[in-house]
Amino acid sequence: MSTSLTAANFGDLLRQLRRRAGLTQRELAALAGFSIAQISLLEKNQRLPDLAVVREQFAPALQLGSEPHLLRRLLALAAEARGERPPAWQVQQEWVQQEWVEGDHLLPAALTPLLGRRQEIDAAIQRLTQTPGRLLTLLGPPGVGKTRLALAVAAQLQPLLADGACLVPLASAGDAGQLAAALAAALQLREEGSGAPLQRLVQQLQRREILLVLDDFEHLLAPPNDAVTLLVQLLEACPRLRLLVTSREPLRVRAEQRLKLPPLPPAAAVELFLRRAAAVDAEFAPSPQALAAITELCLRLDCLPLAVELMAAHIDLLSPQAMLARLQEQRLDLLSDGPPDLPPHQRTLRLAIQRSYTLLNPREQQLFRRCALFAGTFDLAAAEATSGARGGEAGEAGRLQSLIAKSLVKAVTPAEGERRFLLLETLRAYALEQLAACSEEEAQRKRQAYYFLELALHVAGQGQGAQGEAGAGFPQLEHDHQNLLAALQWLVHHDGARALELLAALRDFWYTRGLFDEGSRWSRQALATEAAAAAPPAGRAGALLTWGQMLLNQGSTGDARACLGEALALFRRLHDVAGSARTLIELGWATYLAHEQQASLALFQECLDLARQLGSAALTAHALTSLTHVLVYEGAYTAQLRAYIDESILLYQRLQDAHGLSQALLNLSTFLLQTGDEQAALQAAREAEQVGKASALGSARAWTHATLGELLLLTGQGQVESQAQAHAELQAALTLFQEGSQQDGILIVEHHLGDLARKQARWAEAAAHFGASHAAALASGNERMVARALIGLGHVAAADGDRPLARRRFAEASALLARLPVFLPRAARAELAAALQEEV
Description:
The protein is mainly α. The chain has 40 helices and seven strands.
């Protein structure tokens, strides 16, 4: 087919191509889905062409599949007509056939579809065609699919370049001379003329418009970087040359653009597994359980395409569930036996990683091995402190930076704080193998355990001073929580006494994060060792305080009191005033939850006296909040009580403690409610809710929601909007209480929900809520809530017309209330009095 067409604009070229294809305007219109008038306007340049339509509809109709240069010209003129730049990247491979390339095929055809990489392909094509740089380096860890992506990019660009694209495998090239030879061989250049290899390459490439895919370049980056220099010289001498390089580390030249290739999206990784498994076993039809196992497999394999394909190849031997079970101990052994038509380093994941590992210098290899023991992410300070470097030796930061550049360590940026780093699990598995082979594992675990112990002790110490800056270092502990648990595990088995110190140091962090189950489990384990039994009393007392506080928040009040009592005895024997005060707080709450109000008041008062003696603002505020929480329900609303509340609020404001301030404002709200100022009480509760949003402790937010919900019920006076808000607050409280298994909170909210249903005349629902609250209150011995639930059940009985039952319920409630402090809100007391009068 002749290609000797000339045209100055889009319309002229479209008309020439139509006539060359033997088509009338009517026939082209039918093929392209246009009207005859539209074709006529396009050929007269009176209508702007749409580039996507030109590519997807006109090109096939005009039979341009074998002449890509004509398609390029038509697209260029279409873009020019619109005042735009020719969008080379828009030519899609879906209909770009390999036959377009004239002469020898210099790219291997894809044997399998490429999944989940549309965004990366588009980005690479745009970088190569729409930016000044003509050198793009694809970076990524072993097995991420750099070669496969590079070939896909090249296949899409091939028809748009006059001389196409060419793959240059470099796995066997060892230096710049061999690089030049590999380039010549891949390009099928003849050995003509004299001169250096660079001169011969320039002679052949100077006038060619071509993309070279230089695969596996990383081993050519060693000093003196002659291979990189050769590439730069080629780019300088050949203005139409483009280079796409795959490497695990950047080339670091000015002309370079970099594109980091991430692992596959999870959905694409699962699809890849399913396709490869189906290729191995055509009858493979995964069950829902198998699909769940495949998803987990892909995640544990970091969604690396090579790892996923190698794992899927075992489908004729192992089920996905069996693969998952074996993965932990046989990760790299399972990821082997890849197809023989792949390069050797792509047939097993171990060989792919080993190839990168062997390119590291000895100190980089050592750091890579030792980073494997970090659980989750780590920061530069941890890497430096646990590197084992001798005094005065430096350079860990530079070595870590080199590992990042070589795609062996990944840098991540948390929402707050410094940059952190991690190893993909597949890389970590290989590094652990090397660590064990070098007999370094035990020494490294010891270094890391003591480093994270000291970190936790330092953060805990920030909250022990007079100003009580507790929580200042908690974001750091949040980031390193998995590392702290790994340190705790090692210490439990190797240094039980120091394990108890770590337990004590993590107490406040675990409490504020609501990690009660975790804290309790580790406390039980650490305190059960022989070393813990023989540990110094101070360490044992601190660990017992941690365990008691965790048990208390799990709802195990009896066990908590036993732990806390033992801890208090040890602290008193040691004359540790601060330890005694902290334990008294927790023991006071355990006593209060056992419904021994007067005993709890005595414990809180003793704690307050010790806190003032210490001059600790945090302990004083905590003691005041605990004391006033009990006092506001004891019926004596004195000036002293209001002074305690105001002092606690002031202290928490100075300390900038959102959690504590929220609790103090709730106490103020209850005080105001009991003294009859319901609107002021509602305002204080709303303020507590706003402040408490910064609290990570679910139980604290739950009590805020519960209090606000009750106040909205009491102050809403039947308003629909207030009742709707009350319902939302109570439901939020119930959810949080249920998540934390806090039975006292659940039964209180059940009562309030019953009260809401009663006020809306939903009597069956009210009866269910009141009944649940009554049963739970009886089981826990909470007489106050037993009384309140009985009042609710009395109202339900009265509404049902069962006046004898209503009188019995009200009488039972009245008998309980007569021997308890006045704790009912005024509105509830007035409502009960009216009900009793009515039933007389």
